[in-house]
Amino acid sequence: MLKKEIVGVFKTKRTWIFIFIMIMIIFVDLCMVCNQENVWDKRENKEQIFENDLKMKELSEKEDVITVSDWIIHPAKASYLSGSSRGHLTQMLLIWLTPLFVLNLVSDRSVLEYRKGYTNALLARIGRIKYITGKLLSSFIIPFVVFFISLLLNFVAAQIIFKDGYNFQGMEVFAEQGGWFRVMYEKPDMVYLCYILLTSVIAGFCGVISQCLALLSKNYVVTYLIAFFLWMGLVMGKYSIIYLIQPFTEYGIDYMLCAGGIVSAVTVLFLAVIYVLKVKEDEL
Predict the structure, then answer these.
(1) Phi and psi dihedrals of 10, rounded to 5?
(2) CA distance 166 to 217
(3) Please, are residues 98 and 203 in contact by the beta-carbon 8 Å criterion?
(4) From the DSSP assignment, how many helices (H) and strands (E) are in the chain?
(5) Among 5, 7, 124, 157, whose Cα sits 20 to 30 Å from the Cα of 252?
């Protein structure tokens, strides 16, 4: 069931259209950061910028003030999840609308199957448990893989375009607080890869939640509306999932742990509801 579900998803044009839209959003963001940072102009004046940075560093040590480099930003800082583009519009398009993407990638297929009368035939052939398990697993795996590959491609492109960049726009002062902040600014590439993994897991959780809603409601409008408003609650709350997605901010590991606990609890709650209403209860 799982293999069939995954193969079936990637055979549809809609899936590839939304994958293309996702990749375009991510790379448009990189182009915006590249333009606002004047990367090519700065490379032409590299020696002068380095000389000015050295003078400012000496001055900051004498005067005990914080200075910000004029050189290009670090590749990890320029990458999509760091939200370095002005206005954060491209970041909001993908992160805030994650339910729209995961539903169109995979999670709303169960509604289509129900409307066309395929569900009963599938249940009779493979059984309820295998059907629901296959749906939930594919709804986690496909968004996870698509987000992971898209974000990784963006990160690789940033490594090429922003090669030798080291500026964090003054945020590197948080390294003095030690702990997670020190790790973040001492090993930014490794930390960014961790955030790619976290974001992909969160996208997978969103896929599972959306699939649960689709299985429960069997209605496109209800599924999309509840998924969107529930997701926005997770985004806009005090312990926003953005803390798990965006690196190089002033929020520490405690915010990340709380946000991770909340989204995990919501996912487990929906899985429990599906088990009770769609597996256990229907078998009795």
Answers:
(1) -80, 0
(2) 49
(3) yes
(4) 16, 0
(5) 157
List, as one string, the DSSP characters of 25-72: HHHHHHHHHHHHTTHHHHHHTHHHHHHHHHHHHHHHHHHT------SP
Q: Name the 3-class secondary structure at 73.
A: strand
pLDDT at 65: 61
Query: What is the average per-residue pLDDT within 228-244?
Result: 92
163 three-class SS:
coil
203's enclosing H/E stretch is: helix 188-217
Residue 220's alpha-carbon distances to 110, 191, 277, in angstroms, are 10, 38, 19
Burial class (CB in 10 A: 0-12, 13-18, 19+), 238: exposed
HSE (CB half, 13 Å, CA atoms) of 62? Answer: 6
* Nearest Cα residue to 108 out of 143, 142, 139, 141: 139
95-110 mean pLDDT: 86
Evaluate the CA torsion angle 135, 137, 138, 140 in order and state its sign: positive
72: left (phi over 0), alpha (psi -120 to 50) or beta: beta
CA 241 to chain centre: 10
pTM (2 decimals)?
0.89
Confidence of residue 284 (pLDDT cuts 50, 70, 90): very low
CA angle 183, 264, 281 (to 5 degrees): 165
- Return the closest-CA partner of residue 249 out of 39, 84, 66: 84
Which residue type does 65 have?
A: V
Query: What is the helix (H) or strand (E) element at residue 118, kind and residue range?
Result: helix 118-126
Identify the sign of the CA torsion 270, 272, 278, 281: negative
